[in-house]
From TrEMBL:
Protein name: Protoporphyrinogen/coproporphyrinogen oxidase
Alphabetical list of InterPro entries matching this protein: Amino_oxidase (IPR002937), FAD/NAD-bd_sf (IPR036188), Zeta_carotene_desat/Oxidored (IPR050464)
Organism of provenance: Streptomyces ochraceiscleroticus
Short name of one Pfam family: Amino_oxidase
Ranges of compositional bias, category Basic and acidic residues: 443-457
Domain Amine oxidase per the UniProt entry, residue ranges: 14-436
Region (Disordered): 436-457
Length: 457
């Protein structure tokens, strides 16, 4: 019996939509199945009374995101729809915000670092510059750092580098515990992305790319896939009370979800999936009746990082109306309060009112007049927020990437150990190339095919 379609894609986040887009361009029949009623995954934007809240991803660097920008151009997204982010980054220390995080001026101004720590920062940056060519964001396991964790790397320098730079960046942007996550993926990504001066956003919300991709695809929302079984030449998807068959299926969901759905993975697949753990993310959006937010020296900040050494409830405060004025109606403001990684597990089980109270109370330290500002609040959480990129995942990735093609493939930022939308886009293109090589190229176990797959990765 013939399969129902060429390729079934499970998950309508950026990885899944990119996979489907590439395969449809190649002439295959593709259908995307999404459990939620909307597309975008962790790049979804929430809209309410003229406010646009980015629930997951916040920014889009101009550097190091080649695949994403090529996709944006291919879809015909106007340049004005992807503007540069307004405002600077700050670091809280003691009683005030220090501007200039990740800027060249940090060596002089400190941006939260003491004088002795700045000397170590100069040493650290000089070492990275010498080894720059050895850092590849697509292959973080090949860097000179090996499986060194962020905390182990920081231990070679002044304590401030951990407490007021590496930990806040790891915690604020990735939700990581520095003792659990490897330094190589984070530094590879940051080296590629460059400083915040080159960061952009989508003017109408971070889900713009997802919406544009989905518009040209066969996407079925509100359709949960319960199991995927690989056969010799096809894959079966159990959906509701029926089964859909496809020549290939691509699991574009977080690794723990993929491990649960795939009934018969290979040994290398199972090993990597089990090593790819995720941290949850949680935010509270504050829809304000006037623009308010963190400031440094009178200047409004786009993002204030709040280090673990200073705060155990928040990891950062984003002023979305500073990021881009279209995020809030004229004369109003929008703040995003990012919960601290260690606090999130207990908050996920708490009533929303308690979550809002705890985060807004903590935020008053950084936005003193927040209590006098009229606001409405919403909670946004992802139990599988961001891949941790642990040392175990780094060790098992080479075997996973070198595996033979099969009827079931994977896509997601965790595949690249690159927690970003660029990682998702690249993984989608890689998954599409592996599907095409099996359906149109040499036999799945042919040596030439495996070498091509490695090179594509």
């Amino acid at each position: 019996m013939s399969p129902d379609l060429d390729v079934a894609v499970i998950g309508a986040g950026i990885a899944g939509l990119t996979t489907a887009h590439e395969l449809q361009r190649a002439g295959l029949s593709v259908r995307v199945y999404e459990k939620q009623r909307h597309v975008g995954g962790r790049m979804r934007s929430f809209r309410h009374d003229g406010y646009t809240v980015d629930e997951g991803a916040e920014q889009l660097p101009r550097h190091g995101y080649r695949a994403t920008w090529e996709l944006i151009e291919r879809l015909g997204v106007p340049e004005g729809d992807v503007p540069r982010i307004g405002g600077r980054l700050g670091m809280w220390r003691g009683t005030r915000a220090r501007p200039g995080v990740a800027e060249p001026s940090a060596l002089l101004t400190g941006a939260g670092l003491g004088p002795r720590a700045r000397l170590d920062l100069a040493r650290f940056l000089a070492r990275l510059a010498r080894q720059r060519a050895e850092f590849d964001a697509d292959h973080p396991e090949r860097t000179p750092l090996g499986t060194t964790t962020v905390k182990e790397l920081a231990g070679r320098y002044h304590p401030d580098l951990h407490d007021y730079l590496l930990q806040p960046v790891a915690g604020g942007f990735f939700g990581w515990d520095t003792a659990r996550s490897a330094a190589a993926p984070m530094l590879s990504l940051l080296l590629d992305a460059g400083g915040p001066a080159s960061w952009h956003t989508y003017a109408s919300g971070m889900d713009l790319l997802a919406r544009r991709l989905a518009a040209g695809l066969d996407v079925v929302t509100g359709s949960e896939v319960h199991e995927v079984v690989a056969d010799r030449d096809s894959a079966g998807l159990r959906i509701g009370g029926g089964v859909v068959t496809a020549r290939a299926a691509v699991l574009c969901v977080p690794a723990p979800v993929a491990a649960r759905l795939h009934a018969n993975p290979s040994v290398d697949e199972a090993a990597f999936l089990s090593a790819c753990t995720f941290t949850p993310t949680l935010k509270v959006s504050c829809l304000l009746d006037r623009p308010r937010g963190p400031r440094a020296g009178g200047e409004p900040l786009y993002l204030l990082l709040t280090p673990d050494a200073e705060d155990s409830v928040l990891s950062g405060v984003i002023a979305d109306h500073v990021k881009h004025p279209a995020r809030a109606p004229a004369g109003k403001g929008l703040l995003t309060l990012m919960a601290h990684a260690r606090t999130i597990p207990e908050l996920l089980a708490a009533p929303e009112r308690e979550v809002i109270e705890r985060l807004t109370k903590a935020a008053r330290r950084y936005v003193p007049d927040l209590e006098q500002t009229g606001m409405r609040n919403f909670v946004h959480a992802f139990p599988h927020g961001l891949p941790e990129a642990t040392p175990a995942a780094l060790r098992r990735r080479p075997s996973f990437m070198a595996r033979a093609t099969s009827p079931v493939e994977y896509a997601g930022d965790w595949v690249m150990l690159r927690p970003s939308s660029e990682g998702a886009v690249r993984s989608g293109a890689l998954a599409a190339s592996r599907v095409l090589s099996r359906l149109r190229g040499p036999r799945p176990h042919d040596t030439t095919d495996r070498e091509t797959t490695r090179e594509t990765a």
